[in-house]
Every structure is written in C-alpha cells, then in structure tokens.
Amino acid sequence: MNGFRILALGAATLAVGLALAQPPGGQQAASPAADPVPTTRVPQSYAPELVAAGSTIFAAQCGFCHGRDARGGAGGADLARSELVAEDVRGDRIGEVVRSGRTDAGMPAFPGLAASDLNAIVAFIHDQTRLAQSEEGGRQSVDVADILSGDAERGRAYFEDNCTSCHSAEGDLAGVAGRFQGLRLLQRMLYPQPGAGPNAARTQSTVAVSLRDGRTVSGTLVFRDEFALALRDAEGRYRSFATSEIEFEIDNPLAAHIEQLSRYTDEDMHDVVTYLHTLR
After folding, report:
1. Which of 89, 130, 183, 265 is the least crowded, having the fewest Cβ atoms under 10 Å away?
2. Annotated domain spans of the chain
3. Edge-to-edge strands of the sheet including 247-251?
C-alpha cells in the first residue's frame, strides 16, 4: 500500500463505486424514466370504475413484469412510454398484443382473457399514460408517507445508540424536519454531501501529505483516486501529487455515515428517518 495510512474511507471510495457503475466510455446510462411520454394519438377517457377494475386485473396478470402501475418492472416495458399504447384506440392495438403475446420478448399470450377484463386493462393503461403525461419531469413522485413507514421510538433508540457521538436532537438536528422532509431527508441522512449547508467546513475531508524530502503539506481534500491526490492548502493554493510519490492521511468527518450504510437494515433506515421527522 506504499505506506499509506488512511484514517477514513474518504470520498475516493465513493468515487470508485460510482465509476464502477458507469458504462464503458464514462457516459452515464440514461434512465428510461427520462424518456418523454409519447403523445396519445386519440385522447381517450374511461369511467373511474373501469379504471379501478383494470388496476386490480393488471396487477394480478401483468404487474410482475410491467409493475403494478404499468411503469416498468422485472423485464417488462414502461407502458406509459410505449409508442404502441400511444397509437392504441380503445384496445385495437393493446388487445392484439395481449391476446397473441410477444414470445420473442418473453411475453406470454392471454387468449382466454375475458373481453370485459381486457377492456378494463386497456382503460387502466391509458389512465396511467394520462397521469404520466401530467407529471412534471420523467420520474414519479415519492410522498412523505411513502418514507415514514418506520417506528419513531425504535428510530430514537437506534439514533441514541449509533449517532449521538456526532449529532444531537437538541443541537445540530433541532428542527431538521422543518428544513427537510420525506425523500430529501432520507437522502441527506444516508448520503450527506461534504461542503454543503451551514456546517460546510466541518464536513470537508482534510488530508496531510508527507513528501519524500520530509516536508509536509496539508489542506482540504479536493480529489483522490489510486493515481493522484489533490488538495487546497490554507492559502487557497491547489496542490496535486502522484500517490506513488507520497504518504498521506485523510480525515473524513462523514466516514461514520459511509460505514453506517453497511449496518443499516431497511427497517433501521425507515425507523430513523421517521424519528427525524419528529424533530421540528
């Protein structure tokens, strides 16, 4: 390890993980949710009762692949972004696919599906497309209630056992639920960003570099990978070094959050964020 002595995992660990998640060439794969919803050729409306019936039938017959909301699932397409659905007029195209299937794409045929059930499925799919077209952006919203599925008292106990060496419900986190809610609060809890917010200076990683000639250089960590390290010193100067030529120590104030990710269960996460929502 070239004599490296690293005090904390630091930002580079996250950078490596993000790099591994990128496709070749460094280009981030576009999410299907970023695709626009095609314009429906013939606008259609359906009775709420028919749409509700279609929701139940669709979930039972099609939800495993296409998702319960028809927005995509385990190998099935997002039907709200389907050109075929956009061209469909009251089932003239959807019905044909459902009856015949698409064996090349792994979709089975449903030749015995009752006409009334098929009509309900068509109504549900078109209604989901209508909802998708009315949403801002390409992603579905996440309600606060979707996040607050945990137990606040269990969350308090977990917080007191694991988080109070750095945080206080009466100190830095007092009123946090008034500033952040739902998904945003959960994201900040799991992945706090260095250099952000009122405590920006406290969350920046610092690094001390030992050069071969015996000199030392220290400052705020700017960049690090397996080949190079860069910092900004107290005078604001940008300094970079080849990691093979130095020894260094990194102190990352957010290391505990990174380590905590491997300990949280899904229940723990929701318990803690539900507790944090009580800090108003």
Report:
1. 265
2. 1-22+143-280, 34-134
3. 238-242, 228-232, 216-224, 206-210, 247-251
Tokens linked to 76:
């099935």
Q: pLDDT for 44-98, tens place per residue?
A: 889 999 999 999 999 888 877 888 888 886 567 888 888 899 899 998 999 999 9
Whether domain 1-22+143-280 has CATH 2.30.30.100: the reply is: yes
- Contact (CB, 8 A) for 10 and 250: yes
pTM of whole model > 0.85?
A: no
Question: What is 34-134's CATH number?
Answer: 1.10.760.10
